[in-house]
From TrEMBL:
Function according to Swiss-Prot or TrEMBL: Converts proline to delta-1-pyrroline-5-carboxylate.
Reaction it catalyzes: L-proline + a quinone = (S)-1-pyrroline-5-carboxylate + a quinol + H(+)
Alphabetized UniProt keyword annotations: FAD, Flavoprotein, Oxidoreductase, Proline metabolism
Name of the protein in its database record: Proline dehydrogenase
GO biological process, one term: L-proline catabolic process to L-glutamate
Family affiliation: Belongs to the proline oxidase family.
Cofactor(s) listed in the protein's UniProt record: FAD
Signal peptide (from-to): none
GO cellular component terms attached to this protein's record: mitochondrion
EC number: 1.5.5.2
Gene: PRODH
Recorded GO MF terms: FAD binding; proline dehydrogenase activity
Source organism phylogeny: Eukaryota, Metazoa, Chordata, Craniata, Vertebrata
């Protein structure tokens, strides 16, 4: 079994070799930024103002729903709010299936939980719902909701095997990855503590091919259902997670080395995008650490590769691990515990290299299909120990396919402490290289699991300390992206949120983020936690927007730069008013046989219980509309 030594620069080369045909290279575009002229935007013409949206008008919000559907929603959401029922929901489902039999059980589920959160069993049966929602301005993002029904023990065994290299499994080598990027048996079942995201476990290359075919069907169906459709994929469905762990470890070490050198140059504490290394001092450090001789590094930092500023920022630094640079042969970083230099290179067997290449080829096939049928492809975020590699692979896809428009969207989880830095770095990279920035902003799906893992394994908690802090980061990222959209008509963002305040913030119909009139209405503890976000505290205290939402920035829904997304069966009082007002809004529409989507239904029930404030308001609005229809004798309302 021959071993090959590989690293990110080899992986980057594979990104270019794996495609089955040649993709066009991104063209140079003028950098966009504050004060720049819009790029490729529509001609300035008089347009109507951004439409007003009233999320409290139940008659308009539920105009698309029949009364029995409202009653079902009220029943299901009320049951999801019962801690006693949720604690025993799996046992209750098993008992109901045993007492009723499979046929009656399926009927009961379709009348309740399945009917609320799942569109149907196959693409043919879900077509009427997709067409109905489209008639009321709401698009669809198809998601085949079937998951493998693995026991926790099976999931743990599968994960440990697929996250370890051949050398580690054979006992011939010890993992040199940092603790965060090693597989840990206690967290082998990645479903544990996750309520709002699907989980894929690696079984075989054939299974990954099957997942790719499923994604292809969803992309094709999305293209047929809408001229401006979306589809979503997960990279853990397309290959061994071992590769994502290894490259995440490498990318994180390389980025940490940058900040280590920056601290040596007296530049610690600066924002990532503002930190710049003096190249002359960096060359001295490289020689002192024994990475290379002075003669070897003469051609590393030239005007051709880095410009003439004499400095190196984080984006320049990350480009050095590309195979086109001479430095890539010398990739080593200091181990902060031992002080020794260690190579970033990993050892792969020939079979592992073939598996890695197949993962890249699957990504390429999906991106090409999306481009062919005119569907935007969103790459979902996953756990932090996979995410650096997922984001870098997504970036490689964006460089190739986001030439004319934002086809590939990266996902940013705003409950992460480094979310804002990651957003501004990607925006800046898109400006420099001339491709179209596309992003989906979410709060995040793995909070409980990530915190427990960091505490147990022994590394820094990557999650923001409070929900309020996460909301502050979300709004800060959104503000920055909206400002970019104002100056760059080729950029786009998906605001994926069930939080009504966040949607209001995007539209900026009111003067304040949290819908309060003065800072006195916020608890002192919240203001204390937000003290690190001065721009937001100022806004809350003064009642004046920090920058501006769509209305203030002149971002009209007809531009189709700002999209909104919610899950089917949740927050219709947000989705449908947006759609009816002309905003591009989408529902995640899962489908699949009843028994095979039960894990998905369990997560939906748990997620509704975890979002008590929003779910409580939704129940109130549903009850309010039912009472209105009863009083006005319109219980037999027919959507039109």
């Amino acid at each position: 079994m021959g071993l090959r030594r590989t690293s990110w620069m080899h992986f980057s080369a594979l990104c270019r070799r794996a495609p089955l045909s040649t993709a066009p290279a991104a063209r140079e575009q003028p950098a966009a930024g504050p004060g720049a002229e819009p790029v490729c935007g529509p001609a300035e013409t008089a347009r109507p103002p951004v439409p007003a949206v009233d999320f409290g008008n139940t008659q308009e919000a539920y105009r698309s729903r029949r009364s029995w559907e409202l009653a079902r929603s009220l029943l299901v959401l009320s049951l999801c709010a019962s801690p006693a029922l949720l604690a025993r929901h799996e046992q209750l489902l098993h008992l109901a299936r045993k007492l009723l039999g499979q046929r009656l059980f399926n009927t009961l589920m379709k009348m309740t939980f399945y009917g609320q959160f799942v569109a149907g069993e196959d693409q043919e049966s879900i077509r009427p719902l997709i067409q109905h929602n489209r008639a009321f301005g709401v698009g669809s993002i198809l998601d085949y909701g079937v998951e493998e029904d693995l026991t926790p023990e099976e999931a743990e065994r599968t994960e440990m095997e697929s996250c370890s290299s051949a050398l580690e499994r054979d006992g011939c080598g010890v993992s040199k990855r940092e603790k965060q990027f090693q597989a840990h048996r206690a967290f082998g079942d990645r479903r544990d503590g996750v309520t709002s995201a699907r989980t894929y476990f690696y079984a075989s290359e054939a299974k990954c091919d099957s997942h790719m075919e499923t994604f292809l069907h969803c992309i094709e169906a999305s293209g047929g259902a809408s001229e401006d459709g979306f589809s979503a994929i997960k990279l853990t469905a397309l290959g061994r997670p071992q590769f994502l762990l290894q490259f995440s470890d490498m990318l994180t070490k390389w980025r940490r080395f940058f900040h280590h050198v920056a601290a040596e140059q007296g530049k610690a504490g600066l924002a990532a995008v503002d930190t710049k290394l003096e190249v002359a001092a960096l060359q001295e450090s490289v020689v002192k650490m024994g990475i290379a001789s002075r003669a070897e590094i003469e051609d590393w930092f030239t005007a051709e590769t880095l410009g003439v500023s004499g400095t190196l920022d984080l984006l320049d630094w990350c480009s050095l691990i590309d195979s086109r640079t001479e430095l890539s042969r010398h990739l080593v970083v200091p181990n902060m515990q031992t002080g020794r230099l260690e190579p970033l290179l990993s050892q792969f067997t020939e079979e592992e290299e073939r598996q890695m290449t197949r993962m890249l080829q699957r990504m390429d096939v999906l991106a090409k299909k999306a481009n062919q049928v005119g569907v935007r492809l969103m790459v979902d975020a996953e756990q932090t120990y996979f995410q650096p590699a997922i984001s870098r692979l997504t970036l490689e896809m964006q460089r190739r396919f986001n030439v004319e428009r934002p086809l590939i969207f990266n996902t940013f989880q705003c409950y992460l402490r480094d979310a804002y830095d990651n957003v501004i770095l990607d925006v800046e990279l898109a400006r420099r290289e001339g491709w179209c920035f596309g992003a989906k902003l979410v709060r995040g799906a793995y909070m409980a699991q990530e915190r427990a893992r960091a505490l147990e394994v022994g590394y820094e908690d990557p999650i923001n300390p409070t929900y309020e802090a996460t909301s502050a980061v979300y709004h800060r990222c959104l503000d920055y992206v909206l400002e970019e959209l104002k100056h760059n008509a080729r950029a786009a963002v998906m605001v994926a949120s069930h939080n009504e305040d966040t949607v209001r913030f995007t539209l900026r119909r009111g003067p304040c983020v949290f819908d309060v009139c003065s800072a006195s209405q916020l608890r002192p503890s919240i203001l204390q936690r937000l003290s690190g976000h001065q721009w937001l505290v100022t806004e809350v205290c003064t009642g004046q927007p920090a920058r501006g939402g769509m209305e203030e920035l002149g971002l009209h829904p007809a531009d189709r730069q700002v999209y909104f997304g919610q899950l089917l069966g949740m927050c219709d009082h947000i989705s449908f008013p947006l759609g009816q007002a002309g905003f591009p809004v989408y529902k995640y529409v899962p489908y699949g046989p009843v028994m095979e989507v039960l894990p998905y239904l369990s997560r939906r029930a748990l997620e509704n219980s975890g979002v008590m404030k929003g779910a409580q308001r939704e129940r109130q609005l549903l009850w309010q509309e039912l009472k209105r229809r009863l009083c006005t004798r319109s219980l037999f309302h027919q959507p039109a």
